[in-house]
Design a protein that fits this description.
With 362 residues, the chain is α+β, with helices and mostly antiparallel strands. The chain has helices spanning 3-7, 108-119, 160-166, 201-205, 252-258, 288-292, 317-341, and strands spanning 14-15, 29-30, 40-41, 43-44, 70-75, 83-86, 92-93, 101-102, 128-134, 139-144, 150-153, 172-175, 178-181, 189-192, 195-197, 221-224, 231-236, 242-245, 271-276, 281-286, 306-309, 349-350.
């Protein structure tokens, strides 16, 4: 995935990196842990059910050439014709007597047939040998808490497990005499063409659930975040969307204040608190306007919570949560990709819609 292509995934807004902490009990209550405050109900959502079964199938697509691929080409029975050629940025290769031949998108067999057909203009019955020396046109990104993070060539079908193994697996650290995982598997993700692929890394790598072992595609972005950082993420209709350092005393009021406070016109009666894994998030909707007026007690937050202040009423809780998570995942992919290719790369911001409706600040 090229940096420019990565940057184009996200268009505007404030820079954020985000993951969410886990939670499990269905139809439970969101306990604000503040004396005298009523418990706030929240809803369990399941994005894992969106994982397409077709992603677990290898498919029959043959490798096709693209810019950066390196080939060994030779005319059999003819001396001194063996050459190493590179597919140029324009998709062309140059070999022997031939002008530039466009091979972008062709398989090796199709490229062989093309070369033999064109060489027949100069030679009698030429037979060409062609092999793939190196792949430069297709790669995947493996970043975060891995032993060997980076970009890896993809010459053929590859599963998520194979890719993670190629990168040395999740990294670990010796802590207090024991080995601890540095990667937060509950919030790791695969991003594909601007979309969040709802793979449960915890189930795959810890529980051995092979229903999560999808086949990857070129330009897929795999990210395993650190388990060592604890923050709360505040976005939406606030003056300065950002991460806010977490402490045991961090509340909804102080978190939003830390992001500069609400923007004019923010729809304060439906502020969302998102908590849970990326594939099974929980959402609580609270009336922040009542907290500001002292009608309700402030709410304490957990590390990795997402606080979202909408501009307007949301339309469908699951679609709303999915939109927030998908957009944040794209932002992480853009920011981490830029950081991977440029030490001076600037962050990419985001803008999240609410899915319809209009409303005034309440």
């Amino acid at each position: 995935m090229k940096p420019l292509r990565l940057i184009n995934l996200i268009s505007c807004g404030a820079a954020l990196l985000v993951l969410m902490a886990g939670c499990s009990n269905p139809k439970a209550t969101f306990d604000p842990r503040a004396t005298g405050t009523a418990k706030i109900e929240f809803e369990d959502l399941n994005l894992a059910e969106d994982l397409g079964r077709e992603w677990l199938e290898q498919g029959e697509t043959l490798f096709s050439l693209g810019p950066g691929d390196v080939l060994d080409v030779e005319i059999l029975g003819t001396g001194n014709t063996r050459s190493t050629v590179v597919v140029g940025p324009d998709g062309r290769i140059y070999f022997h007597l031939l002008p530039g031949m466009d091979v972008w998108g062709l398989t090796l067999e199709q490229t062989k047939d093309l070369l033999q057909r064109e060489l027949a203009r100069f030679l009698t019955g030429p037979q060409v040998s062609i092999s793939l020396r190196a792949v430069g046109s297709k790669s995947i990104w493996l970043l975060g808490r891995l032993n060997r993070p980076g970009t890896y060539s993809m010459a053929g079908p590859m599963t998520l497990l194979e890719a993670i193994s190629l990168a040395g697996g999740p990294s670990r650290i010796m802590q207090s005499g024991s080995v601890e995982d540095q990667a937060d598997l509950r919030h790791s993700f695969v991003q594909r063409q601007g979309q969040f692929v709802p793979v449960d890394f915890q189930k795959l790598l810890v529980e051995g659930d092979m229903s999560q072992n999808i086949y990857l595609q070129p330009d897929d972005f795999i990210y395993l975040p650190s388990s060592l950082f604890h923050e709360v993420f505040v976005l939406g209709a606030v003056r300065g969307p950002r991460t806010v350092p977490y402490s045991d005393q961090l509340t909804l009021l102080s978190a939003i204040s830390g992001a500069g406070g609400p923007q004019p016109g923010a729809y304060l009666s439906q502020v969302a608190i998102v908590r849970g894994t990326l594939t099974e998030p929980k959402v609580a909707v609270v009336n922040y306007a009542d907290i500001l007026k002292g009608k309700k007690t402030d709410i304490r937050l957990d590390a990795h919570d997402i606080v979202y202040v909408p501009f307007e009423p949301f339309n469908g809780l699951k679609a709303y949560a999915r939109s927030i998570i998908f957009t944040i995942v794209n932002t992480i992919a853009a920011n981490e990709g830029i950081n991977a290719v440029s030490e001076r790369g600037s962050k990419v911001g985001i803008s999240v819609g609410t899915g319809g409706g209009t409303g005034e600040s309440k």
